[in-house]
Every structure is written in C-alpha cells, then in structure tokens.
Design brief:
With about 290 residues, this protein is of the alpha/beta class. The protein is built from ten helices and 14 strands.
C-alpha cells in the first residue's frame, strides 16, 4: 500500500510512518523545510520529504496523485486543495490533533477596551470559520480520526479515536535506569496549571520539583530518552482554554515508556506505557481503518 502523510504533529505522523514501513508499506511524510526546533524531522529524516512552504501544496498534489491513502494531519487547507485539484482521488483520512478542533484562546488585554472587543470579535469569527471548515472536512473525508478521547465530542459519531503512538525503539526503560524520587514538569504561565501541580505535589509528598522551560532551551528529540531517565517522576497536567484535559501529554507517554512514574490529573501515579499507545498496536488498528475505506 502506498501511504502519504501530509504534515505532522509532534512526531505522530513520523512514528506511524516508521512502523507502517516495518509492515511493508511504501510510506512518506511531507513537511515544510526550515522548521524543526526539537529535531524530530532530523531524527526521522529518512521518512520525510521536505519542501519549501510556497511549494507545499503543489508537492502534496503531486505525491497524492500516486498514493492509495492520503493521511492528512491537521492541515484542512491541504484537504480542500486536494479535494478540488485531484482528478483520480485516493482515499483521504483526516486526522485531528487538538487545537485544529478546539481552537486556542488568545491572551487578551482588558485595556484599551476597544482593542479587547475587536480581538474578541476576530476570535469569534475565526471560531465560526474553523467549525464550518471542519464540518465540511468531516462531510467529504473518507474517515476522520482524533488523537485524544476529549476530541470525540468535537466530531461526528462515525469518527475514530486513534491513540498517539510512542516510538518504543527510542523511548524505553533501559536496565540501568533506576527509579528515583526526582520529579520534574515543564514550565507554564497558567495559574490553573500551577495550582494543580502544587496540589498534586502535596498529595504525593513531592518536596522537590524541577520546573524546566523547554521553550528557552528546546530539548532535542534524540536526547529526550536519556533526559527523562534522569528523573523518577513526571507531573503531567494539561490545561487548554482553561479546561483540564484528561489525557496524558506526549511527554507523559514518553515518560511512561522510559519507566518513570507519571502523575496526571487524577492525582494517582501511573506506570508503564498503555498497550493502546504501543506503536505496532496503533498502526495495526490504522491498517484495519484503511482497509475498511479502500
């Protein structure tokens, strides 16, 4: 099967492509050049076709014309472009990953008041456009996937949850990794997140917590497993648009794979990567989805 992944979110398409290739498929991921702050696409460079942003949609069209399955990650503009331009249409899967469905609230200053109202109106209009566009995508796509359980409430009933995979050949528990009580979380400006983290640390008697700002010093993907193994605990709290997300983050899943104890919104520790996030299980489920629409 010839499979084309268009775009990528946090390495998900690359991991899927890697394990689909192991199953014998001809797989490619298209990304734009010159944007790789965490080194994900450098790590998976054998799977990725890089193209300048101004040529991105044209390259997608050329590659899609010879594919059996086109798997689009978040880029609804690519979906509409291909849906219009392709003469012989392959089966198209639309995969939503989060803000493409939820949107993201912008920080708004309350002064001056006129700017606040203008910003609010623009945000409302963007929300309406996004919802209408997503509704059209759902209508014409051969299958719609979402990456976390909370996103199912944003899509039609026939959509499918495909759990995010973790590359367990890269993230795994080495024999020399010893569990310890050193805990960390990533820095956040959200007061709600900070309050949750303080509460969870108190409940679990965590006295020392390393707060790491990854925006100032991006951790490269190749180095992440060794970095994670320096710790024993990861505090995994996600707040998006002032709402607690009851799912583990990508870092939370990678931490579980590396043998850390992960404490999430439940306040209870988790151990070991769940089977639904094992990469072979994810691509085997995806294989069945592809077969259903071919």
């Amino acid at each position: 099967m010839k499979i084309l992944h268009i775009w990528d979110q946090a390495g998900v398409a690359c991991i899927i492509a890697k394990y689909q290739k192991k199953m014998g498929h001809d797989v490619k991921v298209i990304r734009r050049t010159n944007y790789d702050p965490y080194g994900i696409y450098e790590f998976y460079e054998d799977l990725v076709c890089f193209t300048p942003n101004e040529e991105f949609l044209h390259v997608c069209l050329r590659e899609a014309s010879v594919a059996d399955i086109v798997h689009i990650h978040s880029r609804i503009d690519a979906f509409f472009y291909l849906n219009k331009k392709l003469n012989k249409k392959p089966k198209i899967v639309m995969h939503f990953h989060g803000t493409d469905l939820r949107g993201i609230k912008q920080n708004q200053k309350i002064w001056p008041l006129r700017n606040f109202f203008v910003s609010s109106i623009k945000s409302y209009r963007r929300s309406i456009v996004r919802k209408r566009s997503n509704a059209l995508v759902e209508k014409f796509a051969d299958k719609v996937l979402v990456s976390t359980p909370d996103l199912l409430s944003h899509v039609n009933k026939g959509s499918v949850l495909l759990h995010n995979p973790v590359d367990t050949e890269h993230f795994n528990e080495k024999q020399n990794h010893k569990s310890n009580e050193r805990a960390f979380t990533f820095a956040t400006e959200s007061k709600s997140v900070k309050n949750w983290i303080i509460s969870i640390c108190k409940k679990n008697r965590i006295d020392n917590l390393d707060v790491i700002d990854r925006t100032k010093n991006p951790m490269k993907y190749f180095a992440m497993p060794d970095f994670l193994r320096e710790f024993g605990i990861y505090i995994d709290i996600l707040y998006i648009n002032d709402k607690l997300i009851k799912s583990n983050s990508k870092t939370g899943l990678e931490s579980l794979a590396c043998g850390l104890r992960v404490i999430d919104h439940s306040g209870e520790p988790k151990y070991g990567l769940p089977l639904v996030h094992q990469p072979l299980n994810v691509v085997q489920k995806l294989e069945r989805i592809y077969q259903e629409i071919l």
